[in-house]
Each structure stands twice: as C-alpha cells, then as structure tokens.
Design goal:
Strand order of the largest sheet: 1-2-3-4-5-6-7-8
Number of helices: 2
Order of helices and strands: HHEEEEEEEE
Shape: globular
CATH architecture of the largest domain: Beta Barrel
Number of domains: 2
Structural class: alpha+beta
Distance between the termini: 82 Å
Number of strands: 8
Strand content: 25-35%
CATH topology of the largest domain: Lipocalin
Helix content: 10-25%
CATH class of the largest domain: Mainly Beta
C-alpha cells in the first residue's frame, strides 16, 4: 500500500515497500552505481567541465582602440565593467555654423542639450555573444537624439560591422567602423 501521513507527520514504510538496499547501505540504484564506480563519476564531471570551458574561451576580446564611423566621427572603444562602451574622440565637423563647439542639441532631455559631443559616451552595454560578436547594447545618435539597440561583429582586425536598430534588427541599418591606425591624436577631443 501507499503510506499516508499529513504535513509534519512521520511516515514509516513497511519493509516490503522500501527500495532494496545495496551492499553499501544505499537504496538509490543511481547512487549505488556512482559509489561503486567513482572513476565514471569523475569522467562525467570532466566531460561536463569540458563543455563549460569553451564557453568562457568563446568570449570576444575587446576591440579596443579608435574606430572611424562613416568618416564623420571617431569613437574610442573600451571595456567598461566587462561590457563594450565607446565615446566620441573626434568629429569631422566639431563646430556648428556659428563657430561654437557642437553640443547634444537634439537630446530629448533639455537639461542635457548643452553637453559637448566630444567626449560623450554614445555606445554602451554590448555583451560578448561569441567570438568577435557582441549584442544587447545601446547606441545614442546625437544627430536625432534617439537611443537604439546595437549589435556588432569584428570582421577583421580593422573592421567592425554594427547593426543599429529599434526593436528588430531587420528594420535597422548597418554602420561600418574602420580602425584608426595608432598615431597622433592631434585635433582630437
């Protein structure tokens, strides 16, 4: 029969209803198997660990340095707490028609519209999604004051393709980032 008992009551099973005990006193056949064959358990653990290690090795390296976007703006890409971020370090047109330094004039928050574009972080939160790939990040476009989703892929040592979109990547646009050779920072922010 099936033992009955309420919450908090001790249930004693008759000897005939208990699972058979093994020679080591365990009643669980799986546990008995693991106890008798410790080599197999170690092999199973090693096999599982071999699946975990490649996942950590698959993390993308930070493509640090300065990258030019469409020949108009240079962004310094850097690690920020394990994620990728980027800030403006050069603008093709650093001043407005009145000769003033370009500001974040299209920002939806009026309190932020006086921020200088040079030095502004416009890329943040990109997480590694595999070798040379990142996703789940954000891109702030000072030209329209909107923040977009972004994913990126390092195509070569000097080329990144970034997909910038709202909600669905299919309806976005791709931007090409070209690495700026290390050299002078004259004229940069």
């Amino acid at each position: 029969g099936v033992p009955s008992g309420g919450i908090g009551e001790t249930v004693v099973m008759p000897m005939s209803d208990r699972p058979p005990s093994g020679p080591d006193g365990t009643s669980d056949p799986i546990r008995r198997h693991a106890v008798r064959r410790p080599g197999r358990a170690a092999l199973l653990i090693a096999a599982l660990m071999s699946l975990v290690v490649p996942c950590t090795l698959a993390r993308a390296a930070v493509p640090g340095g300065v990258w030019l976007i469409d020949g108009k703006v240079a962004v310094q890409i850097f690690d920020c707490s394990g994620l990728l971020c980027g800030r403006i370090v050069w603008l093709q047109t650093p001043r407005d028609p009145q000769g003033q330094l370009n500001r974040d004039r299209n920002n939806p928050d009026p309190a932020l519209r006086q921020r200088r574009l040079c030095g502004l972080t416009i890329l943040w939160g990109l997480r590694s999604t595999g070798p040379d790939r990142w996703g789940g990040g954000w891109f702030y476009n000072p030209e329209d004051g909107k923040t977009y989703n972004v994913s990126a892929e390092l195509r070569s040592a000097d080329l990144i393709l970034a997909r910038i979109y709202l909600g669905i990547p299919l309806f976005g646009r791709t931007k090409t980032l070209v690495r700026v050779p290390h050299g002078t920072s004259e004229g940069w922010c």
